[in-house]
Amino acid sequence: MSDIRLEMVKKNFGATEVIKGIDLAIDPGEFVVLVGPSGCGKSTLLNLIAGLETITEGNIYIGGKRVNDTPPRDRNIAMVFQSYALYPTKTVRNNITFGMVSRGIPKADQDAAVAEISTLLQIERLLSRKPGQLSGGQRQRVAMGRALVRKPDVFLFDEPLSNLDAKLRIEMRTEIKKLHQRLGKTIVYVTHDQIEAMTLASRIAVMDNGHIRQFADPKTIYEDPVDLFVAGFMGSPPMNMMPGKIRTLGGQCVVSTGGPEDEPLDFLLPPALSERACGQEGRDVILGLRPEAIFAAGTELPGANRFIFERPISVVEPTGPDTMILFHHAGLDVVARVRPEDARPEGTLFMFEADMEKAKLFDAKTTLRI
Amino acid sequence: MSRNNLGGIVQQKGTRHLMMRTLLFLTLGVFCLYYLIPLIVMIATSLKSLEEIRAGSLLSLPQDVTFDAWAKAWSSACVGVRCDGLKPFFWNSVAMVVPAVTISTILGALNGYALTKWRFPGADIIFALILFGAFIPFQVILLPMARTLGVLGLAGTIPGLVLVHVIYGLAFTTLFFRNFFIGVSSGIIQAAQIDGAGFFGIFFRIVLPMSLPAVVVTVIWQYTQICNDFLFGIAFTVGDSNPVTVALNNVVNTSTGVKEYNVDMAAAIIAALPTLAVYVIAGAYFVRGLSAGAVKG
Ligand SMILES: Nc1ncnc2c1ncn2[C@@H]1O[C@H](COP(=O)(O)OP(=O)(O)OP(=O)(O)O)[C@@H](O)[C@H]1O
Ligand SMILES: [Mg+2]
User: Fold this and answer.
1) Are A115 and A123 in contact (CB under 8 A)?
2) Which residues cross the membrane (chain B) (predicted)?
3) Chain B CB within 8 Å of residue A61 CB
4) What is the pTM of this model?
5) Which of A11, A68, A147, B193 has the fewest C-beta atoms lying within 10 Å of its C-beta?
6) Handedness of CA A288, A293, A297, A298 (dihedral sign)
């Protein structure tokens, strides 16, 4: 097991800065997931850790050793590529053993390792086939086998499940999680899929445009996002973000959203939030409420700091376990998550209840959390 | 492939359509014949005796087939002053073609691999310069090349000719392989790097086996070019080291009284056989490889 440490790592391709100064400390045995929009530099960062790209500035340490100038083969890492990158002319067995052959490991040890890995991944029957004769899920397993067989200190995964269909993806997700629990190796894992990120990660690094916005455990990322970007990135459907202004109404601190076209709503802030946010009358803020924090009035156990309001339903979207109800407000479609039996047809005037304990406030200018 | 499904396409029916079809096949037939007649005449003539040639017409088929002309062309026709037939020169050609094709193909593959998968500053400029070689008219380089061969002590020898063909083949072989490798995923190379293989390890164990279609196209291309070459052969070899193309010219030009058309024809076919054979054996693969660019292995 090894830790990975990045110090002010930068990477330029010609004149374009792709990685703009990243500090990251990954503990031994951790499962770190990198998420972020397309083109933000996730693959590049992974390639820098693997040594497939040379870093422009900064330092990378693996297992306490500075590896800036160490070629990939000597970093004791294994990588699973998004495209799998299996060797097309080699059989599955030879794909798996190629790394050991390159390193001159005795034949007997190779056979033992192949036997162990193929049992673990259930690919014994595929060993003499070529990659072209495998299904997507089988290829994915072989790619995984090729990485696992060398027992490296660090695993790097670049969107390994993105080519699979939804069902297989969920199965493989669980497999990867089990594998990590069993082997306890350090893993850096890139994905677009936030559910994958939430379920697998011990910590998530949210990247944007060559920077890391937040690096924390999944619960913190979800409940305590540092800014609008992180808040908007995690969660599906995404958080409702209603622009509004801080007001004082009858001695109480509210965020007024909407208007002038639609009737404004004055969301009453709970004490903790009002302490931080109030005092600046008229300050522009963004009120963030996740869909699950808005539900049908009276359907949840009563709690403190609930805000009840009425709006006509514009769209109803059943998803099975829950139904999403949309209403127009502040120029957007606000999503509320209700139980299917509480849903009403479109056009009906509906009583919503918002759990203001879960509300987040962001500064409209800096986009930072208040 | 869609080509396999064409038979199932619904066809138009009716007399007008039938007439068009007949016309089409008639035209095709005429063109076919037009292209084949020289070959037919050559084969027919080579199988006749001299008397029959003199008596009959050019287009008539041989009355009594004899292989004497072939035997003579192969082993006893006079090439200049030497009367051993084309045989020694045929082996000269083989001794030139095999190393020239092998070396230029391997170098082209290495070039293409380095230019696409181990990018270095200036790679594009180097490729452009190599490619430029494909557009140089060969007459231009005859004199400087002769001088170079002289300095190297290879003038008038088969190894010298091999060197010339390797150098001037590189432009095309590099182009073929570069275009093939550019379609090969870089992920495979990266995976092999992480697996601990180096430049040559990846080349020989991963990349070269993948590039079989490109190898076939390149080998056929180089083989036909070099087999059929006359200019370099006549410019850079002398007498005994001539390739068969040059020897053929000398057979035809060596006049010892009567003109032996049957021997000339047989000699011409012998000189053309190696390329014909390759076309028959691997022609389909060649066309497929060229048009697909990167046929899946
Ligand atoms: N070799 C290169 N030369 C120039 N620019 C590059 C190169 N590789 C990547 N980039 C640029 O760097 C940026 C980050 O690329 P990267 O592949 O890391 O994105 P990513 O976050 O992995 O995206 P995705 O989620 O789509 O895979 C992109 O804007 C890309 O265009
Ligand atoms: Mg990527």
Assistant:
1) no
2) 23-44, 89-113, 125-146, 158-181, 202-223, 265-287
3) no
4) 0.81
5) A68
6) negative
**Backbone torsions φ then ψ of A33, nearest 5 degrees:** -110, 130
Mark yes or no for CB contact A79/B192 under 8 Å.
Answer: no
Q: With the CA atoms of B164, B169, B171 and B175 taken in that order, what torsion angle do they form, in degrees rounded to the nearest 10?
A: -160
Domain residues for the domain of B246 are 87-296
Residues with CB under 6 A from ligand 1: A 13, 16, 18, 36, 38-44, 192
CA separation for the pair A153, B181 (Å, rounded): 32
**Helices within A71-135 (DSSP H only):** 92-102, 107-121
Q: To probe the interface with B, which of A43, A73, A96, A97 has the most B CB atoms within 10 Å?
A: A73
Q: Do A102 and B195 touch (CB under 8 A)?
A: yes
A108-153 confidence digits (pLDDT tens): 999 999 999 898 888 999 999 999 899 888 898 899 899 988 888 8
Question: Hunting for tokens 């999680």 — which residue is that?
Answer: A177
In a domain, B104, yes or no: yes
Residue with tokens 């079989």: B212
Q: Which long-range contacts (CB under 8 A, 24 or more apart) does A196-199 make?
A: A196/A33, A196/A161, A196/A169, A197/A33, A197/A35, A197/A234, A198/A222, A198/A234, A199/A173
Q: All domains of chain A, ordered by start, with CATH? A: 4-233 (3.40.50.300), 241-363 (2.40.50.140)
Instruction: Note which residues in 123-182 of chain A have CB less than 8 A from chain B.
Output: 132, 146
Angle at A59 between CA A53 and CA A65, to 5 degrees: 100
What pLDDT was estimated at residue A172? 85
Residue B27 covered by a domain? no
B263-272 pLDDT, tens digit per residue, is 888 999 988 8
Q: Alpha-carbon distance A181 to B268, whole Å?
A: 75
Residues B260, B247: Cα–Cα separation, whole Å:
16
Quick check: is B60 in a domain? no
Average pLDDT, chain B: 86
CATH of the domain at B161: 1.10.3720.10
Residues counted in chain A: 370
Secondary structure (3-state) at B61: coil
State the amino acid at position B128 in one-letter form.
A
Helix (H, G, I), strand (E, B) or coil at B155: coil
Question: Which helix (H) or strand (E) element contains residue B266?
Answer: helix B261-292
Long-range pairs, A10-13, Cβ under 8 A, ≥24:
A10/A55, A10/A56, A10/A57, A10/A58, A11/A41, A11/A44, A11/A45, A11/A48, A11/A53, A11/A55, A11/A56, A12/A56
Residue B54, amino acid: R
* Backbone dihedral region for residue A85 (phi beyond 0: left; psi -120 to 50: alpha; all else: beta): left
CA B245 centroid distance within chain? 12
